Amino acid sequence: MSSIVDYMEDLESRKALASVLEYLLECDMIEDDRARGISRQIIGEQTLDNLTEKQIYRYNQDVLHLVEVACDGHCAGSIDIHDLVNAYGRDMELGGTYCQHCMYDIENQH
Q1: Which of 27, 88, 107, 110 is the most buried (most CB within 10 A)?
Q2: What pLDDT, on a 0 to 100 scale, did the predictor assign at position 1?
Q3: How far apart are CA 105 and CA 103, in angstroms?
């Protein structure tokens, strides 16, 4: 891949992470005050690169499990960061947090 493609993919992933963190903050899903502050920092800077070791530890303890989420469906995979806000938003409706593939299967059951 070209460096511009790598850059754009990385940029899109950073935007997706910021979007997920904004959603988690809005829904009060991040309980620790320090973790909320770190999440706001990540959103503002659009990167995790500037976090200190202590901030990285706190992020790993209190936020990472909300960002790297396993699908509750049959695929045994994880939910792509780009689809996570939608998965969280439909959690109550579908009775779990699902990847796009499993969400499609659930919606199209007859």
Answers
A1: 88
A2: 46
A3: 5
What would the two tokens of residue 106 be? 């659930």
105: tokens are 């299967």
Q: Which carries the bigger pLDDT value, residue 60 or residue 7?
A: 60
Identify the pLDDT of residue 57: 96
Cα distances (Å, whole numbers) of residue 32 to 16, 25, 38, 39, 62: 22, 11, 10, 11, 7
Integer Cα distance of 78 and 67 in angstroms: 10
- State the Cα–Cα distance between residues 20 and 9, nearest whole angstrom: 16
Q: Give yes or no for a contact between 87 and 69, defined as CB atoms under 8 angstroms apart.
A: yes
Question: Can you give the pTM of this predicted structure?
Answer: 0.87
- Kindly report the average pLDDT of the chain as a whole number: 91
pLDDT of residue 80: 94
User: One-letter amino acid identity for 73?
Assistant: G
If phi > 0 it is left, if psi is from -120 to 50 it is alpha, else beta; for residue 76 that is: left
- The answer to whether 87 and 98 have CB atoms below 8 angstroms apart is yes
